[in-house]
Design brief:
mainly beta; five-stranded antiparallel sheet; 2 helices; globular; flagellum; Morn5; cell projection; cilium
């Protein structure tokens, strides 16, 4: 079994880097997710005993006193860090400019979803997961979708 400092890549593309003992995560280590998120933790017997998740944009998750997107403040994290953009321009995603959605697909937050194949890929088109019926319905009803025609913001003269 794996022992000592090393790395292990799961079939989903998530990579663990850190200490291993008897084939399990044990000691300091981190999970690097394909979407850019990182979970740094202290592990014991494969179970995290303390840890911190950081989203791809640098936002750190806190399980207590979480103030991000709490119903009163709906700004994206990039808007909190860098300020708001002009009021007559809508910021549709945390990424600015928003990624161009492939034809027939939806932007589901961590990548693109193709409703015909029911596959979610990240923004670099690497496989993330297959969507179940519940996720499929949620994406179809709530996420931005590709349009046949694109329209760009036209500044006022």
């Amino acid at each position: 079994r794996m022992e000592g400092l090393g790395s292990y890549t799961l079939p989903t593309g998530t990579e663990y880097r850190g200490m291993l003992k008897d084939g399990m995560f044990d000691g300091e280590g981190e999970l690097l997710f394909p979407n850019g998120g990182v979970y740094r933790a202290v592990w014991h017997g494969g179970v995290p005993t303390q840890g911190k998740y950081t989203f791809a944009d640098g936002l750190e998750y806190k399980d207590k006193k979480w103030h991000y997107c709490d119903g009163y403040d709906r700004r994206f994290y990039t808007e909190i860090c860098s300020g708001l953009i002009e009021p007559d321009i809508s910021q549709l995603t945390n990424l600015e400019p928003p990624p161009e959605i492939p034809k027939g697909c939806y932007d589901c937050g961590d990548g693109f979803y193709n409703p015909e194949t029911r596959v979610v890929v990240d923004y670099k088109f690497r496989f993330l997961r297959n969507a179940d019926d519940e996720e499929h319905e949620w994406i179809i009803q709530t996420c931005r979708q590709a349009w046949d025609e694109t329209s760009e913001h036209q500044p006022k003269p």
